[in-house]
Design goal:
Structural class: alpha/beta
Order of helices and strands: EHEEHEHHHEHEHEHEHEHEHHEEEEE
Largest sheet: 11 strands, mixed
Number of helices: 12
Helix content: 25-40%
Shape: globular
Strand content: 15-25%
Number of strands: 15
């Protein structure tokens, strides 16, 4: 093991298509329940369904006027509020100068971009909100969380496409081990199921076109997978040094034992078919955590339900982990929340360690026989005493991030 201080996960928060707290998220994925439904905002488009946070969603977070914010920021605030409360922390008692915030986001204020441009085009310049810039800039989720929490330490946004949430946790881990912060509120937020973004992903060939049956559209690692389902979500984890958590008599949910990152440098959107960048990220996370591949009992896969992406990842998992750890993908149930996905899946990985349960991969009855023989959990949750697990996140631009978690 390394000589660096251990980093503990002490709080979890999530707002997802499964519901507005981490408990609802866990129940939905364990039930294998798909959250994809017809989306009225996408009516008339080639892909007219998505995974949305259930309405009404009216969080009471601090004293912020939420109408001033884009939806991705509102989701982030609600998830952060839950995570900080779950950690047993209070902004009224901590040293805000030692608290950092890092939030991953791929798109930023997609809803505000589209709505305000429509105003400009249809009604002229005077109709555009003077708040449009703080609505759309992707750092605003981190900025607003810091404002509400009085967090005056470092505060940044990570933008590595679908690996953004995982990148945020890796940055937070570094801040803690380097002594820059005592507490970091870290995660990801995204709300990008707008007509333009959904059409753009469809035109790129990334989305499932299974419009006759939206609930069954996302099928990670299945033979008939045809693309992912757009989703919105936010997830936040509170991270502290394990020694600090012990000092305040808090038992960690898990330890973030190591992080790894590498870049494909291959193509703007397609993964490197060799998987070498993804493999480098996984092996770097294991090395940082002081773990051997055979120590890993579970893999929370990126598993987007795209033909090429799932094939590359399946080969990677089989190559790095020949002993056959259990594998699952949450995107069958939740869709793909882009910049938030890595944080959502980190929460699920932590819960798998804590609960001794691996959720099933929704909509997938059996893995594609053309792929390597993975121990994919399907149909029902599996009881498993997991001691160490990894969570994979891969994004457009060739960004690869792996997080290694261990039971405390």
């Amino acid at each position: 093991m390394t000589g660096r201080p251990a980093v503990a996960v002490t709080g979890l928060g999530a707002v997802t298509p499964a519901g507005t707290d981490a408990g609802a998220l866990w129940r939905a994925v364990c039930e294998g329940r798909s959250t994809a439904t017809r989306d009225p905002g996408l009516a008339g488009l080639p892909v007219d369904f998505s995974c949305r946070v259930p309405e009404p969603f009216e969080p009471a977070v601090g004293h912020r006027q939420l109408w001033r914010l884009d939806r991705f920021t509102t989701l982030a605030l609600a998830a952060a509020d839950e995570a900080v409360r779950d950690a047993g922390l209070s902004p009224a008692t901590w040293d805000g100068a030692r608290v950092g915030v890092v939030v991953g986001c791929g798109l930023g204020g997609a809803w505000a971009w589209e709505a305000q441009y429509r105003r400009l085009a249809e009604q002229g310049p005077e109709s555009v909100s003077p708040l449009v810039v703080p609505m759309v800039i992707p750092n605003m989720a981190a900025g607003e969380i810091a404002l509400v929490l009085g967090a005056r330490g470092p505060s940044v946004v990570t933008a590595t496409a679908c690996a953004s949430g995982a990148s945020a946790l890796a940055v937070a881990h570094g801040w803690l081990t380097q002594g820059l912060c005592d507490v970091v509120v870290a995660g990801g937020a995204e709300s990008g199921s707008t007509p333009l973004m959904v059409t753009g992903f469809h035109r790129a060939g990334a989305l499932s076109a299974r419009t006759a049956d939206p609930a069954a559209a996302s099928r990670p690692f299945a033979a008939d997978r045809d693309g992912f389902v757009m989703a919105e979500a936010a997830a936040v984890l509170v991270l502290e040094r394990a020694e600090d958590a012990r000092a305040r008599r808090v038992r960690p949910r898990a330890l973030l034992a190591g992080c790894g990152a590498a870049t494909d440098a291959y193509h703007p959107t397609a993964p490197d078919p060799t998987g070498r960048g993804a493999e480098a990220a996984v092996r770097a996370a294991l090395a940082a955590a002081g773990l051997a591949p055979e120590d890993i009992g579970h893999v929370n896969a990126h598993g987007t339900s795209t033909p090429q992406g799932d094939a590359v990842e399946a080969r990677l998992i089989a190559r790095v982990f020949p002993h056959g750890p259990s594998v699952t993908s949450a995107k069958g149930a939740l869709g793909h929340a882009l910049g938030a996905a890595g944080a959502v899946e980190a929460v699920l990985t932590v819960l798998s360690l804590r609960e001794g349960t691996v959720p099933p991969t929704a909509n997938t009855d059996a893995p594609d026989p053309a792929l390597p023989d993975l121990d994919l959990v399907v149909k029902a949750p599996r009881s498993q005493d997991v001691v160490a697990a990894v969570s994979n996140s891969f994004g457009f631009g060739g960004h690869n991030v792996c997080l290694a978690f261990t039971r405390p």
